[in-house]
Amino acid sequence: MREYLKENKAYHLSFLAAVIIGFIVAKIFTDVAADGLLLWVLGFFFVAELVKFIVWRIEQREE
Fold first, then answer.
1. CB–CB of 45/15 below 8 Å?
2. H helical segments located in the chain
3. Which of 5, 15, 16, 55 is most buried per CB count within 10 Å?
């Protein structure tokens, strides 16, 4: 897991920064409903990352 995170560190940090900026923009310019939408996006990202990690792990076992 640590190796996977090291390989994708810049990607994860940029996504985290985008989420934080998204929350700030949502608080300033929109109503509360935008917060829920951002949480859905974050949840889908989390699920996608789990799938990518599982695929990466399977590929590591094959090598």
1. yes
2. 2-7, 9-29, 33-62
3. 15
Determine the average pLDDT of the residues in 33-49. 77
Condensed to tens digits (0 to 9), the pLDDT of residues 1-35 reads: 677 777 777 777 888 888 788 778 777 777 766 66
Residue 4 CB partners (closer than 8 Å, separation 6+): 53, 56, 57
Q: Is the dihedral of CA 15, 21, 24, 28 positive or negative?
A: negative
Cα(2)–Cα(54) distance, rounded to whole angstroms? 13
Please tell me the predicted confidence (pLDDT) of residue 1: 66
Q: Would you state the structure tokens that stand for residue 60, as one six-digit string? A: 């590591």
> What does pTM read for this prediction?
0.58
